[in-house]
Amino acid sequence: NLKEILEGTKSIKVQLEFLSKKSKADANIVKNLQDNTSALNSTIRNGIVLANAIMNNGTSNDSFIRNNVDWLGQSANWSKYIATAASGMIHQGNMTPSMSVLGAYLPNMGSNQTGGAYAEGGALFALGLVHKGHGDSVVEYLKNTLKNSIEVMDGGESKKTEVLLHGGALGVGLAAMATNDMEIYENLTTILRGDAAVSGEAAGIAAGLIMLGSGNESVASDLLNFAHDTQHEKIIRGASLGVALVMFGREEGSEGIIEQMVNDQDAIVRYGSMFVTALAYCGTANNKAIRRVLHLAVSDVSDDVRRAAVMSLGFILSSMPSQCPKVVALLSESFNPHVRYGSAMALGIACAGTGSEEALRLLHPLSKDPIEYVRQGAYIAMSMILIQQNSKRNPYAKEARELFEKSALEKREDLSVKFGALLASGIIDAGGRNVTISLRSKTGHARMTSAVGMALFCQYWYWYPFAPFLSLCFHPTALIGLNTKLQLPTISVRSCVRPSLFAYPPPIELKKEKAPVKGPSAVLSTAARAKARKGEKPAESKEVQEDVMKEEEQVEGGKKEEEQAFEVLENPARVVPEQERFISWEAEERYRPVNPVSRSGICVLIDSKPSEDEAIVSDGTGQIGVTGAGMNVSEEVSISPTAATPLSISQLLCCLGEGTGTPRSFPLSINSACYCFSLGDVSHTI
Questions:
Q1: Is 190 exposed, middle or buried (0-12, 13-18, 19+ CB in 10 A)?
Q2: Terminal-to-terminal C-alpha distance of the chain
Q3: How far is 357 from 343, CA to CA, in rounded Å?
Q4: How is 37-81 classified by DSSP, letter by letter?
Q5: For 20, how many CA atoms within 13 A lie in the half-sphere containing its CB?
Q6: Considering the chain, what is the average pLDDT of its residues?
Q7: CA angle 319, 324, 325 (to 5 degrees)
Q8: Residues 450-501 pLDDT 10s
Q9: How wide is the angle at C-alpha 277 spanned by C-alphas 220 and 353, nearest 5°?
Q10: Is residue 52 within 8 Å of residue 64, measured between CB atoms?
Q11: Angle CA 525–526–531, to nearest 5
């Protein structure tokens, strides 16, 4: 147990269990988006896949994948890569069965070789997302896969392996984050020397992830040399971002490299210098750093540099979210649309999860900006700020949800705006509505993974496959009580505020197609006079009858019951940051926290009655069943050779493989050695 605590795996397990059991993700939101948008456009499909993955981030709820096998089967090339990587977002933290979940696509995994390079590359990236920073069990596999791909690249088949190297580099970078593993670093520099644009960009970023926060000047110098020696913009950008990751949190120790990059003639290197400043001074509100980025935001000749400079303000001011709207207020009215976009993203980054009305007032006109990508940034920023907000606590929440839906479904809307609206629809309900975004911990320290994830997510501007990095930013908002055995006992706490104030938003209802309304039937005057003589009343319309019935029900029902002024929460409980000050421990409760001021997070409890039997909610092992199509994929599962069992999630995902046929039937029988199924007109055995 002590080892698990020190490594952080115990926290991951109990948080995974909380996210899985308490998920309130509304599947109707994604279904509504899917049913009312064009599946033929890859940008729209990518947006829907990412929205679902963000909405179910860390919950292990992959029902959307299982229920839309045919629809996902239409993905091709990088859309296939994104769809496979998105499964890593959904299963993030569920490390035990990760190889089983992704086994259908991972290279060198027996006979499962049907996915192709894009699916295999996406699976390697997904494996890194699942094991972010805790990849001891998979790092060796990822290292060997990377080595094998490099050997193939050296053999002259770089075009076939470039996608695999892209996913493998990002996967190993995430799994071995901040380990300073020189063997992996040397493999990544080999990819950079290959001078291939796609894999080189990923290798530069991955090298920064391996050396994250080390401040190693030799590594930073090497990456800058790679940036100067290549003609590929993607490699220059990847290497520059790698330098930013190496200098994370170094503050004054990064000044030398920042000055060198700021004065570089290459605009892409200067673009990277803004992220070096952002990560080196993340959350410090350093005046010198703020002056530098403000100067470049209004003076640099490159729009990319100006946009990045304004975005950097969000990172630097993340510890003082109330100050960010004041700093960027004038910039949000700039004539330059790139500066306006940067202002929107800066507000979203600094004020994420706060529901700041001041920030939302600045974003409101930006959401109606005539430039498409400015509206895109405004939507994403609004969703970050309004995450876990409901209409009772923040009136902007309902309006924003309606705006995202309207923009995503509007047929004449620009694709970039639709993509932003789809991402925003997922972010505002991220992690089953049980997570938030914050670059700072409660103790005031910078959250390294959150800051890194946000910086890399911002690169979706150039490359959509970087969007899954957003999953690194999410953190559960929970109160989880553990006893001395690190189990979850049955306890309750009181939230001394109206339940509706911090309640989950209500689920949406799918609109049903209305049947055609019949017009009024013609009534002859003679028939009307005949009915009048008989004393019959004219028939009331159906609508009038329904209105009368509603009025009668309201009268019979009387007044609604008054809402209670408090709520009792059971362990584990969702406690959003603004709710923490209203949490109190029950006086007669058997368990009390070791730290009396604990109101959220993981709380170790003292048992006042240790001699009595305990009622346990969970053993805290984090054993979450990975639901396939009616099958539980985990290491403990044993399958009878004669049992009739549907395919697991790893086989269902095979629809994303090279074949374009539609699966017509799934297995009716299964044995311990093989799966038999048909895809189109061809039978397959795995």
A1: middle
A2: 39
A3: 16
A4: S-TT-HHHHHHHHHHHHHHTTTT---HHHHHTHHHHTT--THHHH
A5: 22
A6: 83
A7: 145
A8: 999 999 999 999 999 999 999 999 999 999 999 888 888 888 889 999 998 9
A9: 125
A10: yes
A11: 95
